[in-house]
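Dear Dr. H.,

I hope your travels went smoothly. While you were away I took the liberty of generating a structure for the chain from your last submission, since the lab meeting agenda had it listed for discussion. I wanted you to have the full record in hand beforehand rather than looking at slides cold. The sequence, exactly as received, is reproduced here:
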Amino acid sequence: MIGPELAELKAALDLYATQYAATDKLWAYFSSVTLAVLGFSVASDKVSKSFMEASIVVASYVAFCIGNFSALYRSHQQLVEFAAITHPVALKYQVVLTTLEPFPAASVARFYWAVAIAISVGILFITWRRRVKSSLP
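The corresponding predicted structure, in token form, is as follows:
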């Protein structure tokens, strides 16, 4: 590969890498908030003894998830598009990029909402279990 060819491939890979970093940051926000909400709910007897307070925590978490998902999903779609741009450039110069295959956006969406629902149900379940335990003699 000579200079101009390498520059074209590098530009395509840089485009993908920049989008990958942006998408990764959105996943980091989701992970951090999810762990914080779960940790707060599990560790706080007060929150998990009142369905009203637990419901407020879950509603706030879901509101965050809706906003975060909107940005994450669009960012991931852009990542898939940039991968589609990068592959032909690499193949043009006989460079095989076998690991440059982002998950389909629909798979990401299913995983995201499965986690968000599991956390929300988990918080409400913990609240229910603690209420049952506290009502026993």
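Two observations you may find useful: The longest helix spans residues 51-92. The chain is about 85% helix and 0% strand.

With kind regards,
E. W.
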